[in-house]
Amino acid sequence: MMGALAACACAAHANFSFAISPPRFEIAAKPGERVRQVIEITNASATPAALLIRTADWTFRSDDTVIFVDDLAADSCRPWVAIERRELVVAPRVPYRFRFEVAPPAGQAPVECRFAIMLEGKESSFAGASAGIPVGARVGVIVYVRVGDVAPQLSVQASRVEDRNGTPTALIDVRNSGTAHGRLDGFLTGTDAQGQLLDVSAANTPILPGETRTIALKLTKRGDPNTAVQAVFPITVKGKLEWGKGGSTELDQRFSR
Fold first, then answer.
1. Which fold has domain 3-147?
2. Which pTM was predicted?
């Protein structure tokens, strides 16, 4: 996964590396209102580095990878977006606060606006030029803007077990019939075929409106979320999956190979 869909927004190439904070934005705006935000850019290299900055549309594929697109999508909200500048030189180890703003037009119907801000190392950047190596580091910061009364509505459609990287993995197919993206949270417990007690958590993957996405369940030792376990299937999982503001559904499912 690239950009702000992931847990970290960072990039590196040759002598040049930079980190972005926060890794994604989830903000609310009203029609006719201008909302301003700040991205903090840190250049971790020892010399100044030049960046090219632009907006992009994106699609989130079924394999959880992101494709960024420079051309305006048919329903793009990028015309609402203004960025501080398109080129920037970032001093070493001194965070730069890069500003952008989103202004939904007056009268805009409720919608979730989604776009990316792309930051890319410029060819012949100072850091790259010193070593004779072009800089090609790139990261996309994904921004979600909720305009008006929009919300996710998630439901579990199916469940199964598949091998992923040689390990049997419990999966659920989750449908979003709402009007904004959602992410699963909540507390689940499980028991495997040998009576081993498990804590179970759903991957924090975004589920966009109108799509059904496969979400993996992570199995850890009961009371120790940092210790993954090799469960013996079948396993039984129970608990409450939550999302958004007050959205939830009970899960009581047996996963067998």
1. Immunoglobulin-like (2.60.40)
2. 0.87
